Amino acid sequence: MCDMIDSQSAEKISRMKKLRRTLSESFGRIALKKEDSSFDEICVTKMSTRNCQGMDSVIKPLDTIPEDKKVRVQRTQSSFDPFEKPANQVKRVHSENNACINFKTSSAGKESPKVRRHSSPSSPTSPKFGKADSYEKLEKLGEGSYATVYKGKSKVNGKLVALKVIRLQEEEGTPFTAIREASLLKGLKHANIVLLHDIIHTKETLTLVFEYVHTDLCQYMDKHPGGLHPENVKLFLFQLLRGLSYIHQRYILHRDLKPQNLLISDTGELKLADFGLARAKSVPSHTYSNEVVTLWYRPPDVLLGSTEYSTCLDMWGVGCIFVEMIQGVAAFPGMKDIQDQLERIFLVLGTPNEDTWPGVHSLPHFKPERFTQYSPKNLRQAWNKLSYVNHAEDLASKLLQCFPKNRLSAQAALSHEYFSDLPPRLWELTDMSSIFTVPNVRLQPETGESVRVFGKNNSYGKGVSNSKH
């Protein structure tokens, strides 16, 4: 009898223990589910495919966040980037207690005031950036082999713009020069570099929307033949060097400097344009095409077939443009071919040899017997107006060096004595500040005309040429 009671007691105790384990596990699962549900509710608001546009909601464990990052940070998208598709407002919050990402969507399709791109009412018919119908074409400015440039007006903010419409061929796709220009200009923000406002891509065209600039240096010089006012030359050159110094510090070469690619605003601001041939230089030993730079502004090393060049390539073009602004005529206007262009250069600077230009004999197109042997001259013998301006000849001679490594850099040229009479504040300006924000810095009237004489057409880049060179 006692054995039966003991056996029943043992079974009862066993069932009770089993029931307790079961209940414990059940409550554990319930608690875990509740905790997970609470965590999900706090950390991630899952969006439908329509709302999130394919974004993944990924939560990383707290221990994957570096200690120095475990602080409260709030970042809100509040500025318009024409290169990115419109996205919902994103707020990221990191703290010591959580590593949550909370995607907040605007209710009823209304955009938060913080991310509103323009002041016009938000409605399906309102003009927006990135849309072809957001710009009105006013007049054609120029047409070339693959692009047409129009003067236009933004329906978003009413400002004038330049529309560079690039025709897309179904077989060939988007021209690589357009892709290169857009990708480089996206990251360049400087007062002396043309500003890219927007990009519009359709099946038939790719449109780059630039700030509208009234004319270019080529047309400005055509309006004022015989050489520009010396003070204006100095201000234009300072701005050119300022823009070049900015891109060279970012290892970008322009590779097509010429007056047509230097835009001039109605206030006298000079802006580098046409980055279709520009490219980033990442490795010093990298080689590049020697089919760059318009012939008149092409340096002798490139003319002789060199493909190993750096920022000194652009500095030769600066020297040519400097002389042309002062003298009123192109420095080396080759009329036939590369041979003729080199002869014009050597006539002034002297025919190079291994002493004056180490390594010149190894260049692909250098054949000593093909060139007349010239001795170097003082630059004022070729361009007499250089002698009228203090230190102008010295600066030009340091830019127009046949041996590439001897050419002055843009940064060094800005410190040349030629600019010594300009206000010191010019060297303290931020990148996006115009030199004309400095008191007493302004263009002087050119001989016989008001300073505000401008052409209406400019090229805004490769494929749209009004060049005679």
Describe this structure in words.
Among the domains are: 132-211, Phosphorylase Kinase, domain 1 (2-Layer Sandwich); 216-437, Transferase(Phosphotransferase) domain 1 (Transferase(Phosphotransferase), domain 1). Residues 30-123, 282-292, 450-456 and 465-469 have low confidence and may be disordered. Helices cover 28% and strands 14% of the residues. The strands form four sheets. The protein has a five-stranded antiparallel beta sheet with strand order 4-5-6-8-7, covered by helices on one side. A three-stranded antiparallel beta sheet has the order 1-2-3, with no helix packed on it. The chain has helices spanning 2-43, 49-52, 176-186, 217-223, 230-248, 300-303, 312-327, 338-349, 379-382, 392-399, 410-414, and strands at 73-76, 90-94, 99-103, 135-143, 147-154, 160-167, 196-201, 205-211, 215-216, 252-253, 262-264, 270-272, 279-280. It is of the alpha+beta class.
List keywords for this structure.
alpha+beta, Phosphorylase Kinase, domain 1, 469 residues, 28% helix, Transferase(Phosphotransferase), domain 1, five-stranded antiparallel beta sheet
Outline the fold blueprint.
Blueprint: H1 2-43, H2 49-52, E1 73-76, E2 90-94, E3 99-103, E4 135-143, E5 147-154, E6 160-167, H3 176-186, E7 196-201, E8 205-211, E9 215-216, H4 217-223, H5 230-248, E10 252-253, E11 262-264, E12 270-272, E13 279-280, H6 300-303, H7 312-327, H8 338-349, H9 379-382, H10 392-399, H11 410-414
Antiparallel strand pairs: 1-2, 2-3, 4-5, 5-6, 6-8, 7-8, 9-11, 10-13, 11-12
Helix pairs in contact: 5-7, 7-10
